[in-house]
Every structure is written in structure tokens, then in C-alpha cells.
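User: Hi! I'm working on a homework problem where we have to compare a predicted structure to a textbook description. Could you give me the structure for the chain below?
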Amino acid sequence: MPEGHTIHRLAEDHLARFAGTNPHPTSPQGRFADSAALLTGRLMETAEAHGKHLFLGFEGNTWIHIHLGLFGKYALGDAPAPPATDTVRLRLRNSTSYADLRGPTTCALVTDAEKRAIHDRLGPDPLRADADPDRAGRRIRASRTTIAALLMDQKVVAGVGNVYRAEVLFRHGIDPYTPGKSLTAAQWQALWDDLAVLMREGVRNNRIDTVRPEHTPEAMGRPPRVDDHGGEVYVYRRAGMPCHLCGSEIRTADLAARNLFWCPACQKP
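Assistant: Happy to help. Predicted C-alpha cells:
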């Protein structure tokens, strides 16, 4: 499932390509056809993201709410658009660009009130200017649940996925099984601040890189990572490999139906 930086990047791309225009909406698959017809001729005013949720705003206080889920994919490009296949749930097209959405968990028209209800059930997003890290911190430090599970709970912190969860805990030397209530306020603030920086870099570069400058392949004289999931990391998808810092074997385990990765030496209980 895409992490929050990907959705914020999609929001920025939609703003750049469609805001201030009247994109023509269609649904070659048919499942969004009635809603697409309601949007025909309307100005697209804005786009924004909250966690893993994308919102495309049209005049008349109407929003397309999109959640990619595990299988959703986006293709954006310059006009002319290629012939649409019957797997496209939503196509937006104007004179300069097109955007094709396939396989999302959610693609629905919502009102302002319905959109607000979605925001209200989500935790603060490190990439949003209106985020309140103390709100998440209070929930975390009142919980006996592991910090690894809490970071993946979108009602606690929105937008953090498996990669950022593993990497930020490593960067701060925190054992993933540490109960939330054992974290100090200072530890949580440091995690939050680091997530905000890492995820902004993810939006900018459209990939996840989490290693510090002194730990890059060039700085350490090691081979670069080769993985379809993106850039340089410390522990994510490195189970059984040596830690870049201490040489210990990176471990993996199942936690809440997701693979957890950590270094037992650098992240001691």
C-alpha cells in the first residue's frame, strides 16, 4: 500500500495539471460513471491529502475521495491520453494532461461534511500544516500497545506505512516492541519531527530514502541497494543482512499482519 508521501505527491501533481481547469471525467470501467456525469463541466479547484486519502475538490463543494488501498494505481501523463482500457475507474482529462485511476479501494463523491468526517477519524499527518503532534503523542503515551503498531494505526498517525515505521524507529534506536506508554514526550517529538523531514523528502523525490549522509553507499563504500521499493534504507526488507552501523543481522517478524524489520543491537529494549 502506498505511504503518505505518495498520496501527497499525487495531490501536488493533480494541482499542477488540473486545478483551475474543467477536466472531463469519465469512467471506462463504469463503476464511477454516474458520479463522473455529475462532475462534467465543473471547475476543479484544489487537491489535498490526509494520510493515505486523496481528495480532489470541485466547485459546488464536491469532492472525489480516493483511497488506493493495496491494489490501486495512478497513471498521469501529458495529452493526448492513450486509449482508455476497461480497467480505468476514473479518467480526468483536459487539454494538457490526463490521469487514470485503477483498482482503488475507494473512489466516491463526498460532500464537505462527509470529507470532514474522514479527517476527524484520522490521526495527524506529518505532512499537513494543520497537524497536531501532541494529539498523537497523548494517545501513544497512554497506550500499552507497541510503538510499532501505534505508528501504523492511521487513527493515531496518518500516512506512516511499513517503510517509514521501520526506518524512523531505527534512526532513533527504539525497539519496535516498546509500549507507547514507555516513550517520553521528547522521544515522541523527535520521532514526529524526523517523520516530517523524511516524508517531505519522499514527496520531493518521489521515493523513500532514510539513510543519513554519512551512511550512503558512497560514504561507506558499500554497494547501493537494489530493490523495486525505492531508495536507501537501514532495515526495511533487509532481513538476514548485516546492519549498516553495527553488522548485526537484521531481524523480521510479523506484527499486526505486516512484516516488521529492526536491528536487535541498535534498537535494544
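For your comparison, note the following. Helices lie at 4-18, 33-39, 112-121, 133-140, 147-152, 162-171, 185-205, 217-220. The domain at 133-262 is CATH 1.10.8.50 (Helicase, Ruva Protein; domain 3). Good luck with the assignment!
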